[in-house]
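Hey all, sorry for the wall of text incoming. These are the two entities for the joint prediction.
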Amino acid sequence: MAQAYKWRSEPNIIARMVDGNEIKTWRSRNITLKPNEACVFIVDGQIGPIFSDRMVNQIGGGFTRHVANIFGATATDRRILFGMTGPFDIAIPFSTLTQRGLQVQGHVRLRLKLMKEDLPKMLNYFTNHGSTLNRLNIVKLFKEHVNQRLIAASFSNCDSESTIRSEQFQAMFSMNAEALLRHPLASVGLTLLSVYAVTERTSSEHLALHRVRVEQGTEQEQINATARQKAIEVREGIALRTIACEVEVARAKIRGDQTLEVERELIHIRALEAVLRSEDERNMRLMAEHERQKATRIEQAVAMFERVQSAKRERQNAN
Amino acid sequence: MVLKMVGTPVDALPYLRGIQAVLAGYEGYTKGKRRTADRAIRDEIIRAARRTRAHIANIHDAAFLNSDLTMALVAKQCCTSIDALIEEVAKASSGLPNSFFSSHRAVTNGDLKRLIRHDHHAIMMVTKATNIANAAERELTQASEEGAVHGLVQRCQQMVTSATGFFSERTMLLDGLRQKKRRI
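and here's what came out:
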């Protein structure tokens, strides 16, 4: 029964060169190439057709080739080059200085793609390197080129952090990378889809960030203090109002008690007043009676005096 | 249900000849060659798109080196559109080699005609984009009118975008092959 052959054991592997003689030939080994996988056979130094999106039966040749190999009737050198043709990202770290000597660290993010037709160009890599190409290998391969040709040149023109963070810088960086990296990447069969620089915070930006954080902290404290003060003022107002209300209530209560007492006193006074008024009226009546009696007596005296005088005059006349 | 043996419709022959002019060996979607034809068409579109991309990339590099950043940006956008087209074509659905599900129906002459005509138009559109890109690069080397190259690159991008949209219609046609007619 045919065994499935796997060329890729982890997602970081981009391409792999397999020696066909290492694949056991007496048993069938099949491989299913997905739409983003491709393979090319290099038989006796000649590049064969590129396969993709299909099942390749008996990748090692099977029993027939095994027998032919015994009789020396087959190719002596058989290599199979596998590649992953989907887009993938790599990050190349960098550390450089700007025009003003500011140290900048970060990484360059490259989105690359291995086109199916470019798979044989991978031989340029496998000629001088190991049999497996993963993302780390690509980073190692282009790190120096990116750092020296692209990073150093791009950042040496920057005079401030704002320049590094600007859209114009990223556009310039991308275009510069396109122009500088296309051919080195193409030499190993890779196509550059997009590139951008991811710059970490510089020391000045850290300082600015710290300053902003401190200012924000101070402002926050101030806002909290103001809020607390307002809360205290509100509580104070409430307490004062409560006290005032209680005082008012107490006053009202006291006023109410006093009113009752005064009313009682008033009733008493009015009663007294009535008594006094009646006494006064009686006195007035007594005085009036006394005056009337006095007047009557005076009248009686005057009348008596008049009678005496008339009697006196009569006597005198009589004399 | 097995696919019926259907020959190439006569109506589609002019389109077939047109495709064969750029893609020798193309015989339409006859039985047993459907996936091969599909692969050949897609490979041809990708090949033409890559040619277009190479021209536009050259314009991008030249514009950048001449500090014509606007031109370089336009060229970069065009390259991005071409990358999208290549990805769309490379990862497009190709249908199945034989009827497998019960919902499949046999290919009719109408289906074949539509597919062949669609392939022809798609290839023509991408070829036209390649010609425009080629013309743009030629204009650049001749140092002709400044806006001419700019306009050509933008036209190329427009053509590539149209081709991407047009190609997606193919999936619909292939889906049509796989679905039974619904009874109303």
